[in-house]
Amino acid sequence: MDGSALYDIIGKFLKDHGLWPSPDNYALAHTLFADAGSPAATAVKAATMDGIRLSQKEADRIKAEVGLPAPQSVRGGIDPALFAAATQQVEQFAAIVEAQRADAQSYGADLAAGADRLESGEGVATLVAITRAMAERTKHAEQQLTAARDETRQLRVKLAEVGEEARSDALTGLPNRRAFEEKLVELQESGTGLSLAICDIDNFKRVNDSYGHAVGDRVLKAVAKTLKDNCEGHMVARLGGEEFVILFPGLEPDAAGRILDEARDILSDRQFRVRETDEPLGQVTFSGGVARDNHPDGSPALQRADALLYAAKNGGRNQVFCEAA
Prior knowledge:
alpha+beta, Alpha-Beta Plaits, 3 domains, 5-stranded mixed beta sheet, two-stranded antiparallel sheet, 11 helices
């Protein structure tokens, strides 16, 4: 592959996956296409095997694992690429606004000069020339306004992506801990009674240690999908690692527990296999704990649900413990 073709395919890859063309992202994509057997290329292929977009967080994780440079996240956990793109859009918009300001200032000066010439007695030809000049300036101003409108639309889209990314888990697509905490506060402030569940994949370290992180990531995605599908209408978020949390507004712990236990049962009935080798991965299960918000003793629901989760773990795993009524 010649240099021009390589450049084009790298650019297409970055565009297709929504990655900013920063030096570190370019280096990762270059490795993917210039050295298809490298650890970085293998990791990228595994991460995108299911047709999932390679997020900036996932790209940074791969870069860190294989020794390529990965930039530090900006404040708030927003992806550097999205933040940089939004910043660039703001700068471009500001440049257009400044150009419009300068044009308006010049436009006003030209109008004043034209008025002076007419007052001095210059004839119809001068009036026609001034009118034509003003029409041309108006056309230019319209073009600038159109460009500013387009930049504004792009900026809104980019900022929406930044906001969504800041509240989403890159691997599973679920809301992240930040989004969960915001939603919990919103429900509490509205006075909505709720139950809260925490679940944790059983023996997940064994999966990572035995089969690698690529397989572990697919297990996380499978568990996330099972929870989301079977807890429809309730917020399922990834707390971090192999832990997930679900908010059940308007439900007591026993009712919420039945929903979570059904998801657990569906997951435990599946027999997973390692895609690359067809080796049986075996049963994937999780344990869970469910507690109500606004407990009489004032203790946080998250803390009590976590205690129930570990009681379920210590009691044999693959089960859900609910707080008593």
